[in-house]
Amino acid sequence: MEPPSAPAHRGHVPWHRLLLAVSLLSFWNLPATAQITIESVPFNVAEGSDVLLLAHNATEDTLGYSWYRGERVENNQLIVTYRIDTQAYTQGPTFSGRERIYPNGSLLFQNATQNDTGYYTLMVTKNDLQREIVTGLLRVYPVLPRPIITSNNPNPVEHEDTVVLTCEPETQHITYWWWINNQSLSNSTRLQLSEDNRTLTLFNVTRNDTGPYECETQNPVSATRSDPFTLNVIHPVAKPIVEANSTTVTEHEDTVVLKCLTNDTGVSLRWLFNGQSLLLAERIKLSQDNGTLTIEPVRREDAGNYQCEASNLGNSNKSDPLRLDVKFDSAPGSSSGLSGGAIAGIVIGVLAGVALIAGLVYFLFIRKIGGCKDPVLGIAVTVSDIYLGQVTSANSQRTNPQTSTTFRTTLTNCPRRLMKLHTLP
């Protein structure tokens, strides 16, 4: 058994202060009729700290003290005994090495555990061998960890789902408390607490039930509160509105600020330009919540329709388009020039004109040389389907419409052609 003057373990509540109180009590001259009592100091003990079972009203005619676990004096439950005249200590079968007994009969527990909770019995033996027995209670409570809120449905549908929030972990001999938006729970037919307050049920949730929620656990030695928990209640999203500081601006001079306005909570925002997701650039920036779009400075390519879209897990809605017009200087010598598309259009137009002129010249030339005459019949020959090259002659067969006689003649000095013969009126 270590002597009472041995230092306490580092990190525990120092017990030498308790020893001072014990020492002072040993010098009290109390009436002989005073009965011995036991007090736990502190009354409620946090696990891991030190606690003293302080014996009050000890008298000078005491021979010794014996401490037992439980409410009865049983040898197999003996912790330690101390004899005053010899200052001898005797350890019992339930001695753990963390107990220390003092000359006034007080018993110190170092680094108390929850297993130390229970009744303890002190037997005081007088010089005349008379005995006085008293029992005291030691309460050791755990230091509570930070609780966590869990939900059976973190994304409920408005007016349809019921949500059950639970404060974890489940611990005995503690009290549970709930807060919504940093306020204690109000009376509501849609809110219901379990018998031990550990679970909170919300019936037919609405968008106003998003929270945040907090739960707190308490015992006699500690209290701790959870981190905030927010419900994401899925509900129809109202159409947002886009507002601008100006819808007609000047290139390189003005700054445009567009704001997405919505009354919905728990929604995410994104921006669209001409129906497509907006691409950010050094000039085009969004606020942290995406609610404000800033273009600085504005350029002509920024002209177009802007929309914002609000969405939650189940729904989304887009604003009406807001048209942004950008004025710019198109005078000669300005920084602007023909775009690639404009240049391509001009080139295509020129080429089309050249082709048209060439076709016209070719057509007129063919009309000029395109007739041959049969020298025998005096029949004019019209031409189609031109082929390249020259030939000296070609056979032509024709039926005279007056006599139904077939003639054969020779055409000379005509271009090589596939010919159709027609009689002129």
UniProtKB/TrEMBL annotation:
InterPro entries (UniProt xref): CEA_cell_adhesion, Ig-like_dom, Ig-like_dom_sf, Ig-like_fold, Ig_sub, Ig_sub2, Ig_V-set
Signal peptide annotation: 1-34
Pfam families linked to this entry: Ig_3, V-set
Membrane-crossing segments per the record: 342-365
Cell membrane recorded as keyword: no
Stored SUPFAM superfamilies: Immunoglobulin
UniProt keyword list: Glycoprotein, Immunoglobulin domain, Membrane, Signal, Transmembrane, Transmembrane helix
Residues covered by the Ig-like domain: 145-232, 236-325
Gene3D superfamilies hit by this protein: Immunoglobulins
PANTHER family on file: CARCINOEMBRYONIC ANTIGEN-RELATED CELL ADHESION MOLECULE 1 (PTHR44427:SF1), CARCINOEMBRYONIC ANTIGEN-RELATED CELL ADHESION MOLECULE 19 (PTHR44427)
Family: Belongs to the immunoglobulin superfamily. CEA family.
Protein name: Ig-like domain-containing protein
UniProt source species: Sus scrofa
